Amino acid sequence: MKVSKLQDMTDDELKDQLKNLKQELFNLRFQSATGQLGDVMVIMKTKKDIARVKTILRQRELKSAAQS
Predict the structure, then answer these.
(1) Cα separation, 39 vs 6, whole angstroms
(2) pTM score, two decimals?
(3) Chain mean position to CA 44
(4) Which terminus of the chain is less hemmed in, N or C, by CB atoms within 10 Å?
């Protein structure tokens, strides 16, 4: 997922996206454990997307705290 697309989202949308990505990661790990996962790189990509979303949320949190 592109960072520019994530930065255009609101905080609520990012939180929903984070929840969806965590659920997807759980499902991918389950598929991997049962041997149904074809491409293990999908797990790494999902983890990176989670990190991107968390980073943007944290940046916004720090920015709002600095303005207060």
Answers:
(1) 24
(2) 0.92
(3) 11
(4) C
